[in-house]
Give the backbone structure.
Amino acid sequence: MSEKAFNGQVVVITGAGQGIGYEIARLLCRQGANVVLNDIDDELAKKAAENIEREGGCCIPMTGNAGDSSFAYRMVEEAVRRFGSLDIAIANAGITIFGDFFTFSPEALQKVLSVNLGGSFFLAQASAKQMKMQQAGGSMLLMSSVTGQQAHKDLAAYGMTKAGIGMLAKTLVVELSRYNISINAIAPGATVTERTTGDQEFIKTWSRITPMGHPASVADIANAALFLVSPASRHITGQTLVIDGGWTSTSPQP
């Protein structure tokens, strides 16, 4: 990809105050995109946008709950208001709740479903309506997980939502292809982020059980994400790309 592969493209990305989402937003801005960056944490959203702008990117923070369907529509409206169109939508926001299946509460399940599945579904819906109206096509990317591919202890609810996200990407091919809109998902494995950087046991454990010998960096995931929303992947749609250093081939539990 060229240094300005996304020059002038307008992007909405959720849950991007830090971690994988932030790195995706940063790389997109570096390559010329105009990004509406969402996070539920106002301070994180503003700081992330400021950092990206300091690097020369164009990034607008937007604080809110990505699991709220009406907020998904407001994000798309804000992107169009600020930049005139919408070209790329990335549903990155998600929450992880560990819990024993036998005692998992209805409240916890509803929260995971709302953000992980609802947030992905309604951002896709809001974005697709805008892209359809523009008649210029577009790209969407959803965030799945290796836990949607392989069982993981105490993550029944989370894994269910991540498997559902992969199916959402596959199903929407039928709805979106006629409008030249592609939709894919990525399924990261263990990744070193702000939450895990200081946990030497996390790095040590996943280095031991990952065939490639180490967990992913946020750049490993973000680079794949950029490929899937770029013109270089224009004939790829409905797919879930696993990025896990080979872990799902062997799947030892941490």
Q: What stands out?
A: The radius of gyration is 17 Å. The helical segments are 19-30, 42-54, 69-83, 106-134, 156-176, 200-209, 218-228, 247-250.
